[in-house]
């Protein structure tokens, strides 16, 4: 029989039907957190935050290791692979299909909703009933951390939706307002007094049972609840139902039972679309970015009845993709209908995906059996139809222009899109500009990449490495790979290599990323190349005009283009600065252009002679 876990009530674990004795307190809380993220590595930092709050004690990591060791020993049997292991800077719990009641609830709820959408009402009722039976009459214990608490809030919200789907299906199948259904709906409106749909279903069940007086009393109770909490009257649907009951019109007629697994016409079998889970496990360490991560995760967890769009932008190598994927991983349970990840190609020159290809790729992830659309409008419309009233997360990485990412979200539903880009391609409120890491976080990233010892033994050299890499995570991780090549490399030697401008750009791995930004500059590319010949330091439009020979207004426009492309930044009124790595890249381009011009001139001279 293997393992089984119950968290939709008192937390319990079983092996071969035998109850396991779980250690009380934080070890069990850690188990619940890992179960809610089964199959994904949960970072140590997040586990500590979940178990001890925003300011965990110094002993938190050591205590967490002890808790994990207890759980590993409890959950692993001799002769079978380890269930709980360290991975990607955190811990991953392997849970097989059918072992976790919450996962089974989600699966049955998805099947019930899909069955109802395809007209198989009796199958929808059966699946919803099975899903609801997994919940214990006793509520789960309070969660330690905010993200785990938010996950349970979402599960309870999903339970409310399943109850209503079940009740609606029962009524459509001809339930006469049975005592069991009416009792379920009475409990439902007590738990969710602001859901008009709950009041409506209870009124329908009472009306179906012939209890007109109870239905009218339910309407008056709904009015009091909505006015007292929200200060609003009932909506048109509930009001029209009230008028129907007052007129004494008969209850709806019984709907004919349908064949399980069939469409209303009985022509085609029910096809349940698989739920995509495309988020990759982070291969590189993630440090810092606490404020930005909090903004992203808060924006994602607040996705409600209307879709949410968030944007992260910044210069090449700043860690935009890492931040977006970290936020997506931390909020994955907010999006039970799927998580998509698509690289739109903006980080490498010439790799941009056309908008139609983007929309068709999203379409294929949501419905693998569907064929591609032939036009962009058709593709976007089909994507919106598939996303309507669902909770799906789309991480669209490395966008270059709005056409790649716009018009994909429907008008209703809890979907969210996170877009990363060099420039702010979308004008949305949830827009975050990612700056380079401060020195403290840059050193922390070095420690996470190469270990504490190289940094502690040569702290001044480590500070120099962070400075030469300008706090860019990509540059730091790339340069630090030298230290993994063997003991002949030291932090001091790496700092000396980066100090040499002939090698710095190559050692940081930024050249191909900067090239993508450069190739989108248009006519401003000429000014950018010539700035490579200027002395380091801020420049003005007048200085650029004198250096390049272009009119001042054209120079000012070119500087604005460089700022938009994250290749320059304003440093005071009318002054602009190129980072050293960007300036080195511009100098390379200028030198290449000069060499090509010299070679062309020499060739022409030889031909003439």
Automatic annotation (TrEMBL):
Entry's Gene Ontology molecular function annotations: ADP binding; DNA binding
Record keywords, A-Z: DNA-binding, Transcription, Transcription regulation
Family matches, as SUPFAM superfamilies: C-terminal effector domain of the bipartite response regulators, P-loop containing nucleoside triphosphate hydrolases, TPR-like
SMART domains reported for this sequence: BTAD, Trans_reg_C
Top-level taxon: Bacteria
Residues within the DNA-binding region(s): 1-95
Occurrences of domain OmpR/PhoB-type (ranges): 1-95
UniProt GO BP: phosphorelay signal transduction system; regulation of DNA-templated transcription
Family: Belongs to the AfsR/DnrI/RedD regulatory family.
Protein name (database record): DNA-binding transcriptional activator of the SARP family
Annotated organism of origin: Micromonospora coxensis
């Amino acid at each position: 029989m293997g393992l089984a876990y119950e968290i939709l009530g008192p937390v319990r674990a079983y092996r071969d039907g035998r109850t396991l004795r779980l250690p009380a307190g934080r070890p069990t809380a850690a188990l619940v957190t890992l179960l809610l993220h089964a199959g994904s590595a949960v970072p140590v930092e997040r586990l500590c935050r979940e178990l001890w709050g925003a300011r965990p004690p110094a002993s938190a990591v050591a205590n967490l290791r002890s808790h994990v060791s207890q759980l590993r020993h409890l959950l692993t049997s001799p002769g079978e692979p380890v269930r709980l292991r360290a991975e990607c800077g955190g811990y991953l719990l392997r849970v097989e299909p059918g072992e976790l009641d919450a996962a089974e609830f989600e699966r049955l709820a998805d099947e019930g909703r899909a069955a109802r959408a395809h007209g198989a009402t009796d199958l929808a009722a059966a699946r919803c009933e099975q899903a609801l039976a997994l919940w214990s009459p006793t509520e789960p214990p309070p969660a330690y951390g905010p993200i785990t608490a938010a996950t349970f809030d979402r599960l309870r919200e999903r339970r409310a939706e399943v109850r209503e789907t079940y009740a609606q299906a029962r009524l459509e199948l001809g339930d006469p307002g049975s005592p069991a259904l009416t009792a379920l709906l009475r409990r439902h409106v007590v738990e969710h007094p602001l859901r008009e749909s709950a009041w409506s279903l209870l009124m329908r069940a009472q009306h179906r049972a012939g209890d007109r007086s109870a239905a009218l009393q339910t309407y008056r109770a709904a009015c009091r609840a909505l006015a007292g909490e929200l200060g609003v009257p009932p909506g048109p649907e509930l009001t029209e139902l009230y008028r129907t009951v007052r007129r004494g019109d008969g209850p709806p007629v019984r709907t004919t039972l349908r064949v399980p697994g069939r469409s209303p016409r009985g022509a085609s079998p029910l096809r349940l679309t698989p739920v995509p889970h495309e988020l990759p496990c982070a291969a590189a360490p993630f440090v810092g970015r606490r404020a930005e991560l909090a903004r992203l995760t808060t924006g994602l967890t607040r996705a409600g009845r209307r879709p949410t769009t968030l944007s992260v932008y910044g210069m090449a190598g700043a860690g935009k993709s890492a931040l977006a994927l970290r936020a997506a991983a931390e909020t994955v349970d907010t999006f039970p209908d799927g998580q998509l990840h698509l690289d739109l190609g903006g980080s490498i020159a010439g790799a941009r995906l056309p908008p139609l290809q983007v929309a068709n790729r999203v379409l294929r992830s949501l419905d693998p059996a569907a064929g591609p659309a032939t036009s962009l409008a058709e593709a976007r419309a089909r994507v919106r139809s598939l996303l309507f009233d669902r909770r799906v997360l789309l991480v669209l990485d490395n966008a270059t222009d709005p056409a790649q990412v716009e018009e994909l979200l429907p008008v209703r539903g809890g979907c969210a899109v996170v877009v990363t880009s060099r420039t702010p391609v979308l004008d949305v409120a949830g827009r975050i500009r990612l700056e380079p890491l401060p020195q403290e976080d840059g050193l922390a990233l070095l420690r996470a990449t190469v270990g504490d010892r190289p940094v502690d033994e040569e702290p001044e050299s480590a500070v120099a490495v962070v400075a030469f890499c300008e706090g860019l995570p990509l540059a730091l991780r790339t340069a630090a790979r030298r230290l993994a090549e063997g003991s002949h490399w030291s932090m001091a030697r790496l700092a000396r290599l980066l100090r040499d401008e002939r090698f710095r750009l190559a050692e940081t791995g930024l050249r191909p990323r900067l090239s993508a930004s450069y190739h989108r500059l248009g006519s401003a590319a000429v000014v950018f190349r010539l700035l490579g010949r200027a002395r380091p330091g801020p420049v003005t439009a007048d200085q650029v005009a004198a250096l390049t020979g272009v009119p001042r207004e054209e120079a000012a426009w070119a500087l604005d283009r460089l700022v938009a492309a994250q290749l320059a930044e304003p440093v005071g009124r009318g002054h602009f600065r190129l980072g050293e790595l960007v300036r080195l890249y511009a100098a390379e381009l200028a030198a290449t252009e000069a060499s090509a011009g010299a070679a062309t001139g020499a060739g022409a001279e030889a031909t003439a002679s």
